[in-house]
Known about the structure:
9 strands; alpha/beta; single chain; Rossmann fold; 28% helix; 7-stranded mixed β-sheet; two-stranded antiparallel ribbon
Amino acid sequence: MTVDPSNGWDAVADVYRSARSKIGLATVRQWAASLPAGGAVLDVGAGSGEPLAAALIGEGFVVSAVDASPAMVAAFRRRFPNVEVACEPVERSRVFDRAFDGVLAIGLLFLLPEDSQRDLIPRMAAALKPGGRLLFSAPRQICAWDDFLTGQPSLSLGADEYRRIVTGSGLQLVGEQVDEGENHYYEALKPGPSTGQR
């Protein structure tokens, strides 16, 4: 049996792209305003790049992306042919070997198994430059459900546990917020000298 590294997302890529709204875009733009102008940003689980990577590219950031779905990555490359995007599972991606001013993972973490979530947050933290910022979304409550598009299981570890993992990864949790779709976000800072804000 072949394992799908995209956890079902490759099969629903076209449906997802047509249904993807701009909910959360204002939250990401607010976060990006705290990053250095023209800084390097990694979009983890970027999908087709719309609308988040598109907005960051439009604002002058040097964006890199990673997604496990070949169909999503193909759409990303068609839309942004000059932007680096890796087609590989985030659990094994080498993109984290580099350093970024910002790392974001929106709508991704809770799609992964618990162990993968616990491993990914420290990997994202390690990929931040000193003064860099992480933004990710996950429900505040501890809960499990089946994703309505893929039918695959989703799992939230809950706010207390995400906070613990963030601080255990050497980051400072600097804020939490909820967007217009009631999605919960965690923002963290890697201690060290900032490279300046826009």
